Amino acid sequence: MPGDGTGKPAGEREYGFPAPLWRALARHRPPGAGAATRGWRSPVRGPWLTAVHGALLLVALPLVFLTGLLDHLAYGPRFGQAFPPDVGWLRLPQVDWPTRPSWLFRVTQGLHVTLGIMLVPVVLAKLWSVIPKLFDWPPARSVAQVLERLSLLLLVGGILFEIATGLLNIQYAYLFGFDFYTAHYFGAWVFIAALVAHVSLKLPRMLSALRSRRPADEARTGTAATRPEPPDPDGLVAPEPGPATVSRRGAVALVGGGALLLGALTVGQSLDGPLRRTALLLPRGQDPGSGPNGFPVNRTAAAAGISDADTGAGWRLTLRGGGREVTVDRAALHAMAQHTARLPIACVEGWSTRQTWTGVRLRDLAALVGVPDPASAHVRSLERAGLFNQAVLQANQVLDGDSLLALRVNGADLSVDHGYPARVIVPALPGVHCTKWVAAIDFRTDG
Fold first, then answer.
1. Are 155 and 194 in contact (CB under 8 A)?
2. Inter-axis angle of helices 104-118 and 47-74, nearest 10
3. Which domains does the chain have, with CATH numbers?
4. How far apart (Å, rounded) are the C-alpha atoms in residues 280 and 267?
5. Are strands 423-425 and 324-328 parallel, antiparallel or unpaired?
6. From CA 17, how far away is CA 20, in angstroms rounded?
7. Largest CB tally within 10 Å, which of 123, 343, 393, 440?
């Protein structure tokens, strides 16, 4: 076999080792593989547009991942109440989730959901830009390319899995057949590992592609003047390009406009006011009703199996701690010092709201049973089943001056759907741990 100046035969340089395997694969092309490759004829497809989409994802996807990890921390994994409870060596540092700023969880969860939805068009555009590579034959020409393809498989599979399960979860469409929290958590780690591997392989080419064309020039180039890029080593440029039906400027604008539209149809669920009615992509509370209790409800009393008898005149709250037990009713709670705080409540599905709550400080209830400095508090609900019928609060969450056993909201008694006779409200705490229909609180000194 003739050489090519590299010291290796031409076939060896192209296919790597073992070259006979790749040459044998090349001779046995599947029917239609070549036609499928030639069928993608858009002249805008190429390294530059692929790199633009890749750069956007490289900035935004780690932010989605990071906010997801922060939300996992907010659930209190140290108490075994974050899901999944056992993540092995993927366990995050054991830190106390702060209560300040009070809107912290509202922002992290809202950003996680809203940005994740906005990135869907960018992900699809990135896949469109590289889809001809799926029909390459042989699928790899070296062991290194095999490893690259495997990382790409995990990357693409991971992001599509995270998007699909995330969208179904925020729509309350539990069609998985597996635990969403566990799958989403481990899936995120698989994806981010594949992303790191892919970026380490492709970052130089991405930067080179971004430098190959000036954005200002592309912004002035219309459809009629759009030409294919020169052939590239990755084979992204169409081998037989057709006439342009859209410019690169138009392609970027289409993807960006789609992302902004999805953001506009999502962000209202993280805001109070008229924009809530525009949040068509999230299922809770475009029109939650009017009056003091007119804000979204994640789980109604009926769905939780709470009856009138549970919340009627016979309801009592049991407080335990320091070897003491105290039982109080609503009248006794109303007789205690009342505190009012304007605090947000936010849900993992992405919606949040800020309301004015009135009730008894949790630290006053702890002092009532002789535990002025509790290490934690275990709150139990009247709800008899479900993942979130109880919650453990950290010391800082119990002792914060705005942490309440709320009896009223916006100047009126809580409705039964919002947790009557009493519910927990803690700054920056996930909504599912702001336990409704509270039956008992154990203040602990041992953490």
1. yes
2. 150
3. 16-264 (no CATH), 301-444 (3.90.420.10)
4. 10
5. unpaired
6. 8
7. 393
